[in-house]
């Protein structure tokens, strides 16, 4: 690690370089994810169709907005490891050795738990939750908004991942703050 002091302009140049290292792959993957967005939307709406609900697009722009939203979601998910790595490489020179080790250890564990929670919700629990909701409410409305379903699915997927990762994030933050309190960080 380079331990030299940087000016504000130097930090901004480094931030710009790190952001470009993420934005270029994001832009390069976008055409492919736009092509594959239909697959994600079919997988998302299949549990609703399985219980007899019809997903409709109520506004003229819904089809395009759903495809772009699904493409951006896949694009972001594919580039997330690169984003996290670039963020770490940007802040790591300002951390003590013990803080860097804590960020890596708890970040990897927390990221894995976030991914596990998001995947478990989106691939395993979506169908049973839809069926339980359908049964408890005495039936869905005949037509559901595709945009509302997509927004709710995205929010619940992120929430379930965050709940799974929260203990690791809290433990890592506690370890970094304890190191900061001790002052040496070695």
Structure notes:
It is built from four helices and two strands; from the N terminus they run αβααβα. With 186 residues, the chain is mainly α. The model has no long low-confidence stretch (mean pLDDT 84). The longest helix is centred in the N-terminal third of the chain and has 43 residues, at 8-50. It has a two-stranded parallel ribbon. The chain starts with 7 loop residues before the first helix and ends with a helix.
Task: Describe the SSE topology.
Elements lengths: L7 H43 L3 E3 L5 H30 L5 H40 L6 E3 H37 L4
Parallel strand pairs: 1-2
Structure characteristics:
about 190 residues, mainly alpha, two-stranded parallel ribbon, about 5% strand, flat
Brief write-up:
This protein is mainly alpha-helical. It has four helices and two strands.
Mean pLDDT: 84
Main sheet specs: 2 strands, parallel
Share of β-strand residues: under 5%
Strand order of the largest sheet: 1-2
């Amino acid at each position: 690690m380079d331990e030299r002091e940087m000016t504000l302009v130097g930090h901004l140049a480094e931030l710009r370089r790190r952001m470009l290292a993420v934005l270029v792959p994001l832009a390069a993957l976008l055409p492919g994810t736009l092509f594959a967005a239909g697959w994600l939307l079919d997988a998302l709406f299949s549990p609703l169709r399985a219980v007899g609900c019809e997903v409709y697009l109520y506004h003229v722009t819904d089809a395009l907005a759903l495809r772009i939203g699904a493409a951006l979601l896949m694009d972001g998910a594919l580039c997330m490891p690169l984003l996290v790595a670039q963020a770490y490489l940007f802040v790591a020179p300002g951390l003590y050795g013990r803080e860097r080790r804590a960020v890596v250890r708890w970040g990897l564990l927390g990221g894995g738990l976030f991914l596990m929670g998001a995947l478990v919700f989106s691939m395993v629990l979506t169908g049973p939750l839809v069926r339980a909701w359908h049964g408890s409410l005495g039936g869905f409305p005949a037509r559901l908004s595709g945009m509302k379903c997509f927004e709710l699915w995205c929010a619940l997927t992120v929430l379930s991942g965050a709940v799974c990762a929260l203990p690791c994030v809290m433990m890592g933050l506690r370890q970094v703050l304890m190191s900061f309190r001790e002052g040496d960080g070695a």
